[in-house]
């Protein structure tokens, strides 16, 4: 229902602002491509935080993933690159566990150090392994092959006439379906499967229950014979592996090369989607798709972004109404200002500088955090080291 | 005679600078309710944690039904059929009751998938069988304290435990819940289970237990049965000597008011109790005792007086000044002192030196405060004074507070809070967890400051203490004062009845 | 009884020494495995790093690091992670450059204005994170990361020709208009090289921070809150205000991070202005144990490593090995500090235990 409403809104906006590109198949598949690394980083954050550890090192683990992916990818094959990236991320995830769980180092400190180390390591290793190779250098790798794309055969041909009819909503749905079924990378499909798998493991299996219990109240888990420290090692290894996979995606799907600065804060955005998604894999993915969507728009025509202003204004107007009903005076005020501001901006200027679109996801995260705070439920043991002796 | 359900032989556990258990022996017969009693700090909790595998003893052995069992983790204890309900519940608030119960022992199908249906059926069955109904799909965060305890008991039963350890199970419950719990415990022993419970409430022990073991100073000192002993004798066994009787009162209450609360109400968040319409006057030179079952508004009352919670109605006065809206620092400057219940959390900077801890709460008072500056020399000098006067045993004032033992930490805190001529002193369970010697010393100090004209508010769960040194006793129940008593004319039994609302008519 | 204070200082020094030694060992091992002669490389590095020109460069660079380190340390002292130092200082130095270039004032006043603007912008940006932490309970770790991205966007937008910047002739650099010389902070010459005058200001700020922490009521309340927020609140500290004020102070200090460079040599903000000192600052604060002197030591070490690594490229070794060393130092130093802390507590407990009467202490650690 909500999805349909959102679609209706976007479709209407595309018409009003005369920006057919907003929901084109190109925009949809670009959004997917931008969203997948964020989804994977987000899942990495989710696994860590559900077990009670903040993983600021996600960014660094993604960097390691990009480097390992390129290193193994250019020598053997992109799939070997993917495996190497996952392994590299996992090793750094386990290292984060070693630091925070075994040595009692503060979780943020360890994460920061991992990010610093990953940056230097990437450059240092590049100087050894990439310099002197064709196309390689200290800040980039040689060409890496790409992971294959697949399409649902025949679907595009069937839907294409509907899409070009330019009937509102129906054509847009056709465009979206074409966008998500044509030329989709196998890694994208893997990522989608991992979203489901994460949910299933975390919420349906005994391993997941134990892991979540260690994130909520490690002492409780310990008192029932579940070793929180061992669970945290496991969770962080998975977390790092997912971040590494996100890095591999950047190298073998989003581009075909390792480049310094390629991760560009996606690890941090991943952390943001965890909060945005209220520590649930499905909602986290929706958040990541939103971020991917704004990212994709930024790289397209400027008028498309103007259309976002209307979307924003309508969404905030809706939120304002809800806040009024919930009698949340602060939120009402803030949402109303946002709605009026965006509307005024659209009517008055009609242009959004692309630099602003770049931080829209971050700003949204801040707003969600500050305004929806009563409704979010972070795991209660987050950030707290667990030591047996403090349990009694 | 069958082998006892549990037998502990020669258990010793040392911590740096402290011996928590010293050659402890305990024998618990199968199918009985066995009480382990002793003062706070006597070593009961450590002993139970050893039995449950949370703490590994340095010496001694544990026998379950006659066979020695190595206990190195809770998993070993669970495997041996031992379960524990901790004083501070070990529950994950954001998980459901079902998830909390099955954690670590989940019924699983293929690929580790949890069989939620089987688990639900099993939990409901257990609840029906032992008549401890719980709602499997409720979120633990939404449950009352009593219901949480039920979840804990079901959790233990779910694991097929034959021996249940309950650590101070009644300290957090309201009276009806206590009755319900005691009934449940009887039912469990009736079913052939063995119950070991820790308590320091002698009336409960005498009504429920089949056998009693008394601990004192890290040792087991006596083993007895309710029929063979009176509550006074038990108390003497616990403290190891004649009960220290506080010195006789000489009433010299002055007319000026130290602390006054006028129809104060607060709104509690979450599990907090709301205060409603609290009127309280403590005059200079008077000790007013607050009696009540824990969790009936005592901590909210203290927070309101300290200024950490602002009331939704009413006024708070220190002397003649209205401080309802004033910050804690202003109240401190007006001469408000506080000896908290949880000294590690509220009274000490564990990673700071003793003299830095002396500054805490006095950073706005001369001689330590000089405008924006802190006079470190004065702080050091006064710490030396406290260490000498209060017999704080430490090699120097440069050691970290965390290195001191509990009794010495408390002596330092008491010395600090009584420095700088306080006008009002709030003492919350001031003798909890300290040894008998320190206890007597603290009582003497309290009486001394009272004589010096300080208005003292004493919040305590120790009824002997309340009756022994208070000038008046107010009973708090669910956020209200429900009675006022003259300690000279009341015994612990009457006070206990008032606390539980039994005489509320 | 030994002088426990001296012992404690010595214990604290063990950790960084061990960490640096370990990092050097690791670097030597890496060098060895990549086929370089670790001994001769080290010799070259030390020789290059101790030339007068290098030392002056180290001091200048360390000034910047020091300010970032102190900004981090202020937060850490209160258990706040100001990951936003990076965004705070870039926004601050950008606006300081813009304001500085747009006014003409007598020298001292001009410099003062620029510094005040930088501190105000840094403080204001940090205040946002402080405000939502205090009022909405939002972790500053996340909010400052997000604010960094927002700051990047704002600067990217404003630093464009036709807005608040211009294109440099003959290069791709885009930058603000230069600050007139009345707004320069004069340096002083050492061995023929110019040391930033702002270095002295930074040193004074470090001393000020030490006095504030150890001698004033505010400093005591700050440290107490960092050790135990609850105990400090009970003692009369308004924790929320303390969190907010600390965040603002940290932000104000962060605002100064770019100032030595701006006032001492660049005189304008451009795309080429050094960035990314946020994490460096935190790392240095950690290394220096949040103590003004320790932070100074950390800043100098960091700057020295970066400077002397420049020779590595000439020796055919990637200088990025220094980054790995830096990360190793940070990680091993926190591990070492934690070990030292535990050893220290145990040692003290033993000392205390000896001075107590054995039979009396059964009540401990209840």
Describe, in plain words, how this protein is organized in 3D:
The complex is a heterotrimer of chains A (about 400), B (about 500) and C (about 375). Chain A contains 16 helices and 2 strands. Chain A is mainly α and about 400 residues long. Chain A has 2 domains: about 100 residues; about 280 residues, ABC transporter involved in vitamin B12 uptake, BtuC (Orthogonal Bundle), CATH 1.10.3470. In chain A, helix 1 packs across helix 14, helix 3 packs parallel to helix 5 and helix 4 runs antiparallel to helix 11. The model of chain A has no long low-confidence stretch (mean pLDDT about 85). A 6-stranded mixed beta sheet of chain B has the order 6-7-8-3-9-10, sandwiched between helices. A 6-stranded mixed beta sheet of chain B has the order 16-19-20-13-21-22, sandwiched between helices. Chain B starts with 5 loop residues before the first strand and ends in a 6-residue tail after the last helix. By secondary structure, chain B is of the alpha/beta class. Chain B has 3 domains: about 230 residues, Rossmann fold; about 180 residues, 3-Layer(aba) Sandwich (Rossmann fold), CATH 3.40.50; about 70 residues, no CATH class. Chain B is about 30% helix and about 25% strand. Chain C is mainly α. Chain C folds into 2 domains: about 50 residues; about 280 residues, ABC transporter involved in vitamin B12 uptake, BtuC (Orthogonal Bundle), CATH 1.10.3470. In chain C, helix 3 crosses helix 13 and helix 4 packs across helix 12. The longest helix of chain C has about 35 residues. Classes of the chains: A mainly alpha (about 400), B alpha/beta (about 500), C mainly alpha (about 375). At the A-C interface, helix 5, helix 12 and helix 16 of A face helix 5, helix 6, helix 12 and helix 15 of C.
Gyration radius over CA of chain A = 22 Å
Please give the alpha-carbon distance between the first and last residues of chain B: 50 Å
Q: What series of H and E elements makes up the topology of chain A? A: HHHHHEHHEHHHHHHHHH
The geometry of chain A reads as globular
Q: Which CATH class of the largest domain in chain B is shown?
A: Alpha Beta
CATH topology of the largest domain in chain B: Rossmann fold
Look at the structure and give the mean pLDDT of chain A: 83
Strand content of chain A: under 5%
Distance between the termini of chain A: 49 Å
Q: What portion of residues of chain A is helical? A: over 70%
Content-based structural category of chain A: mainly alpha
- Which parts of chain A are unreliable, with pLDDT below 50 for 5 consecutive residues or more? none
């Amino acid at each position: 229902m909500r999805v349909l409403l959102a679609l209706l809104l976007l479709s209407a906006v595309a018409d009003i602002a005369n920006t057919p590109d907003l929901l084109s198949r190109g925009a949809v598949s670009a959004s997917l491509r931008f969203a997948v690394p964020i989804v994977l980083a987000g899942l990495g954050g989710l696994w860590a935080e559900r077990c009670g550890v903040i993983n600021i090192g996600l960014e660094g683990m993604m960097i390691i993933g990009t480097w390992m992916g390129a290193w193994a990818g250019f020598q053997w094959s992109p799939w070997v690159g993917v495996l190497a990236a996952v392994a590299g991320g996992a090793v750094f995830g386990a290292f984060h566990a070693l630091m925070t769980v075994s040595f009692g180092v503060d979780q943020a400190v360890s994460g920061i150090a991992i990010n610093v180390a990953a940056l230097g390591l990437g450059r240092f290793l590049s100087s050894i392994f990439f310099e002197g190779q064709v196309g390689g250098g200290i800040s980039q790798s040689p060409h890496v092959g790409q992971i294959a794309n697949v399409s649902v055969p025949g679907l595009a041909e069937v839907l294409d006439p509907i899409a070009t009819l330019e009937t509102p909503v129906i054509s847009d749905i056709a465009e979206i379906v074409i966008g998500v079924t044509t030329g989709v990378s196998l890694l994208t499909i893997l990522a989608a499967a991992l979203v489901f798998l994460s949910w299933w493991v975390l919420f349906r299996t005994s391993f997941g229950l134990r892991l979540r219990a260690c994130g909520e109240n490690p002492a409780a888990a310990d008192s029932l014979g579940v070793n929180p420290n061992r669970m945290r090692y496991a969770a962080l290894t998975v977390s790092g592996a997912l971040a590494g996979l996100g890095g591999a995606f950047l190298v073998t799907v989003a581009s075909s090369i390792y480049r310094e600065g390629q991760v560009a804060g996606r690890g941090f955005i991943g952390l943001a989607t965890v909060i945005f998604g209220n520590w649930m894999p499905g909602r986290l993915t929706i958040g990541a798709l939103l971020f991917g969507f704004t990212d994709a728009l930024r790289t397209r025509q400027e008028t498309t972004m103007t259309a976002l202003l209307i979307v924003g204004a309508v969404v905030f107007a809706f939120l304002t109404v809800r806040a009024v009903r919930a009698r949340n005076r602060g939120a009402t005020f803030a949402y109303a200002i946002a709605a009026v501001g965006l509307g005024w901006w659209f009517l008055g200027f009609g242009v959004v500088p692309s630099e602003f679109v770049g931080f829209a996801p971050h700003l949204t995260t801040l707003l969600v955090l500050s305004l929806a705070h009563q409704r979010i439920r972070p795991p209660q043991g987050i950030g707290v080291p667990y030591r047996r002796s403090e349990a009694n | 005679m069958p082998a006892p359900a549990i037998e502990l032989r020669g258990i010793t556990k040392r911590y740096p600078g402290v011996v928590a258990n010293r050659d402890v022996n305990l024998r618990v017969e199968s199918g009985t309710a066995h009480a382990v009693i002793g003062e706070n700090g006597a070593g009961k909790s450590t002993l139970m944690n050893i039995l449950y595998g949370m703490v590994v003893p340095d010496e001694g052995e544990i026998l379950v039904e006659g066979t020695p069992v190595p206990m190195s983790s809770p998993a070993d204890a669970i495997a041996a059929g031992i379960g524990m309900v901790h004083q501070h519940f070990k529950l994950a608030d954001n998980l459901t009751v079902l998830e909390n119960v099955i954690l670590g022992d989940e019924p699983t199908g293929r690929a580790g998938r949890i069989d939620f249906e089987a688990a639900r059926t099993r939990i409901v069955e257990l609840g029906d069988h032992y008549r401890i109904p719980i709602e499997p799909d409720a979120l633990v965060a939404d449950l009352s304290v009593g219901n949480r305890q039920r979840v804990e008991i079901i959790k233990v039963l779910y694991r097929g435990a034959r021996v249940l350890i309950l650590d101070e199970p009644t300290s957090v419950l309201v009276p009806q819940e206590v009755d319900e719990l005691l009934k449940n415990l009887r039912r469990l022993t009736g079913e052939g289970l063995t119950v070991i419970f820790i308590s320091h409430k002698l009336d409960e022990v005498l009504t429920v237990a089949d056998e009693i073991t008394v601990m004192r100073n890290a040792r087991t000192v006596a083993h007895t049965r309710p029929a063979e002993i009176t509550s006074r004798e038990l108390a003497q066994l616990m403290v190891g000597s004649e009960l220290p009787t506080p010195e006789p009162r000489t009433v010299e209450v002055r007319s000026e008011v130290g602390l006054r609360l006028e129809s104060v109400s607060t709104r509690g968040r979450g599990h907090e109790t709301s205060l409603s319409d609290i009127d309280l006057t403590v005059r200079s030179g008077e000790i007013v005792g607050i009696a009540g079952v824990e969790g009936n508004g005592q901590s909210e009352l203290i927070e309101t007086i300290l200024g950490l919670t602002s009331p939704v109605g009413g006024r708070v006065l220190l002397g003649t000044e209205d401080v309802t809206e004033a910050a804690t620092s202003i109240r401190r400057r007006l001469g408000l002192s506080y000896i908290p219940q949880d000294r590690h959390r509220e009274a000490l900077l564990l990673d700071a030196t003793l003299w830095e801890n002396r500054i805490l709460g006095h950073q706005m008072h001369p001689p330590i405060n000089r405008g924006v500056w802190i006079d470190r020399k004065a702080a050091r000098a006064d710490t030396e004074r406290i260490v000498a006067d209060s017999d704080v045993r430490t090699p120097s004032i440069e050691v970290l507070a965390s290195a001191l033992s509990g009794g010495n930490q408390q002596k330092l805190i008491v010395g600090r809070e009584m420095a700088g001529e306080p006008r009002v002193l709030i003492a919350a369970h001031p003798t909890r967890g300290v040894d008998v010697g320190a206890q007597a010393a603290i009582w003497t100090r309290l009486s001394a400051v009272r004589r010096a004209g300080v208005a003292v508010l004493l919040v305590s769960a120790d009824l002997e203490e309340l009756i022994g040194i208070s000038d008046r006793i107010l009973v708090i129940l669910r956020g209200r004062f429900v009675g006022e008593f003259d300690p000279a004319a009341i015994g612990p039994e009457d006070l206990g009845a008032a606390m539980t609302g039994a005489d509320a008519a | 009884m030994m002088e426990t204070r001296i012992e404690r200082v010595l214990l604290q020094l063990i950790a960084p020494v061990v960490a640096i030694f370990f990092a050097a060992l690791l670097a030597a091992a890496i060098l060895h495995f990549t086929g370089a002669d670790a001994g001769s490389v080290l010799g070259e590095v030390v020789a290059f790093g101790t030339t007068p020109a290098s030392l002056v460069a180290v001091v200048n660079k360390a000034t910047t690091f020091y300010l970032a380190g102190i900004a981090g340390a202020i937060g850490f002292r209160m258990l706040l992670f100001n990951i936003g130092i990076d965004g705070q200082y870039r926004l601050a130095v950008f606006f300081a450059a813009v304001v500085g270039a747009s006014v003409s004032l007598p020298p001292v006043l001009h410099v003062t204005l620029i510094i005040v603007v930088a501190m105000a912008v840094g403080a204001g940006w940090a205040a946002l994170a402080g405000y939502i932490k205090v009022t909405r309970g939002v972790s500053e770790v996340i909010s400052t990361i997000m604010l960094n991205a927002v700051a990047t966007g704002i600067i990217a937008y404003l630093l464009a020709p036709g807005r608040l910047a211009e294109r440099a002739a003959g290069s791709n650099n885009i930058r603000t208009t230069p600050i007139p010389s009345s707004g320069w902070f004069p340096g002083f010459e050492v061995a023929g090289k110019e040391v930033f005058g702002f270095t002295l200001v930074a040193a004074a700020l470090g001393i000020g921070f030490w006095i504030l922490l150890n001698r004033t009521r505010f400093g005591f309340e700050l440290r107490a809150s960092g050790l135990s927020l609850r105990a400090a609140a009970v003692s009369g500290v308004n924790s929320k205000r303390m969190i907010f004020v600390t965040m603002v102070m940290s932000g104000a200090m962060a605002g100064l991070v770019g100032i030595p460079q701006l006032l001492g040599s660049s005189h304008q903000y451009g795309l080429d202005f050094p960035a990314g000192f946020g994490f460096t600052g935190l790392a240095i604060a950690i290394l220096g144990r949040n103590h003004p002197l320790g932070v100074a030591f950390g800043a100098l070490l960091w700057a020295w490593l970066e400077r002397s690594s420049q020779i590595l490229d000439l020796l055919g070794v990637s200088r990025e090995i220094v980054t790995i060393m830096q990360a190793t130092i940070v990680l091993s130093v926190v591990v070492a500090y934690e070990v030292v802390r535990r050893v220290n507590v145990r040692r003290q407990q033993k000392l205390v235990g000896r001075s107590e009467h054995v039979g009396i202490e059964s009540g401990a650690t209840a």
